[in-house]
Backbone:
């Protein structure tokens, strides 16, 4: 399974991609496959303040409910509204159209502390 | 060390994702739970249910014994008939939910994998305490069992197993295929669809699977393998209880809505307690719940109703109905259809209501 090299990861399977001034966050294919059919994604409202390594939402599948974590601190500026109606997008395209939130980071350097694709691949056993 | 069923190699080769279930290594899914669920509703699926316990009873006191431990009257059960019922403790708590089938010379009881050791020990104790003369043969590991479920199953399976055509619901027959494979087939299941369950010798499992599954990996295949994940969402839509969720030693069959599977006017272990519960009326009742929105109420979630609170036993997002559904024990006073409830999700209250079970009934 390929893990994009253009982003940073948490061992809880969230990816973080720097796009200009913002950081986009979603979950990896490994996590989506593990959850199986995703039925609901609970995302924070615009303006919500995030703390690094704290929970920002929840994801539910037919099988289980899991917490979503952010690896960085900052403020939510956008969330993927499409996931309200089509949560299965996270299963089919987790790295692109299945993105979850865009965050204005309080300190971009926090990204440096996260795992790169190689380290994440190793931690997830892939 | 986890136990493996005779279909283990098949699961691996078919891409099954294996998980631990009641001490067995079982496929939770092969493709996707929802895909397998829908294929069962629209066409047909093959489930490995070999982990379930298969216990055979014979000998002079077999009938007397079964009438003592089983909630239904087996003396009126005909040869070739299967019946669902419960095993209870003295307090009326449910030890297991089982299917008993009466054959010419013996009886078969299919029990839940997770309860097998417990009920076998219970049976040995009853036999000893009551000084009964019968033989109990546990053939779980010398046989295999598959469930074939879905609207196209009967037609498909009758082509190779002729006995299936004339089989009515909850009937079974023992026959042999090409004078080679001795099998028992019953028109039973746990999905809310028509279908059969087949027991055959463990060493014939591979051959039988090849015959039945055929080209299951082709998109147009009528029968495809399905795992425990789909089995769970299917049985939930069909309003069927699962031991460890809706059923346990802490609940009785009356509260669980299984009064129809209890013959109160015969003597069996737990009968006295159940007669009292039935006369007084149960304090809690198992109900179906429909939630607003897409959130899933999991086992243990707290439900609030007009007169008190209850607890969710199972929940899922129903692939067939496209609604969030759950079963829960709630105060009997709140159990009427349409009663407004709320379910708490980390402090966020979601609206829900009591609905009739089953959630899904086949056309």
Residues:
């Amino acid at each position: 399974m390929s893990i994009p090299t253009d982003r940073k990861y948490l061992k809880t399977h969230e990816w973080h991609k720097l796009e200009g001034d913002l950081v986009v966050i979603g979950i990896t294919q490994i996590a989506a496959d593990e959850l199986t059919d995703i039925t609901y994604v609970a995302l924070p409202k615009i303006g919500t303040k995030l703390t690094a390594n704290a929970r920002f939402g929840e994801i539910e599948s037919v099988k289980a409910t899991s917490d979503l974590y952010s690896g960085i601190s900052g403020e939510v500026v956008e969330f993927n509204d499409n996931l309200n109606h089509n949560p299965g997008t996270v299963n089919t395209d987790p790295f692109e159209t299945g993105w979850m939130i865009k965050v204005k980071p309080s300190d971009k350097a926090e990204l440096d502390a996260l795992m790169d694709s190689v380290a994440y691949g190793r931690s997830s056993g892939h | 060390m986890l136990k493996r069923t005779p279909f283990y190699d098949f699961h691996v080769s078919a891409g099954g994702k294996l998980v631990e279930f009641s001490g067995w290594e079982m496929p939770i899914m092969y493709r996707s739970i929802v895909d397998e669920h829908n294929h069962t509703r629209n066409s047909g699926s093959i489930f490995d249910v070999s982990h379930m316990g298969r216990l055979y009873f014979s000998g002079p006191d077999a009938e007397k014994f079964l009438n003592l431990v089983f909630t239904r009257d087996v003396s009126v059960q005909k040869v070739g008939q299967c019946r669902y019922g419960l095993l209870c403790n003295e307090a009326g708590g449910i030890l297991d939910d089982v299917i008993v089938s009466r054959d010419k010379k013996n009886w078969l009881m299919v029990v839940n994998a997770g309860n097998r050791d417990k009920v076998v020990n219970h049976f040995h104790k009853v036999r000893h305490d009551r000084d009964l003369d019968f033989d109990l043969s546990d053939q779980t590991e010398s046989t295999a069992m598959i469930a074939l479920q879905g609207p196209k199953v009967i037609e498909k399976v009758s082509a190779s197993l002729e006995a299936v055509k004339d089989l009515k619901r909850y009937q079974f027959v023992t026959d042999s295929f090409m004078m080679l494979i001795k099998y028992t087939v019953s028109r039973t299941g746990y999905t809310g669809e028509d279908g059969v369950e087949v027991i055959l010798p463990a060493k014939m499992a591979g051959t039988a699977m090849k015959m039945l599954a055929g080209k299951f990996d082709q998109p147009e295949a009528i029968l495809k393998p399905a795992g425990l994940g789909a089995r769970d969402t299917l049985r939930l839509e069909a309003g069927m209880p699962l031991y460890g969720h809706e059923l346990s030693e802490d609940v009785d069959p009356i509260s669980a809505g299984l009064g129809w599977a209890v013959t109160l006017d015969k003597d069996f272990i737990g009968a006295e307690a159940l007669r009292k519960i039935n006369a007084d009326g149960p304090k809690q009742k198992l109900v179906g719940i429909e939630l607003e929105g897409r959130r899933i109420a999991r086992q243990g979630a707290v439900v609030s109703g007009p007169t008190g609170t209850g607890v969710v036993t199972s929940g899922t997002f129903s692939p067939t109905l496209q609604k969030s559904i759950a079963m829960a024990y709630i105060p009997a006073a709140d159990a009427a259809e349409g009663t407004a409830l709320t379910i708490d999700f980390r402090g966020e209250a979601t609206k829900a209501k009591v609905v009739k079970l089953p959630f899904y009934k086949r056309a």
About this structure: Chain A touches chain B at residues 36-37, 39-40, 42, 58, 60, 62-65, 87, 91 (CB under 8 Å). Chain A has a mean pLDDT of 95. Chain A has four helices and nine strands.
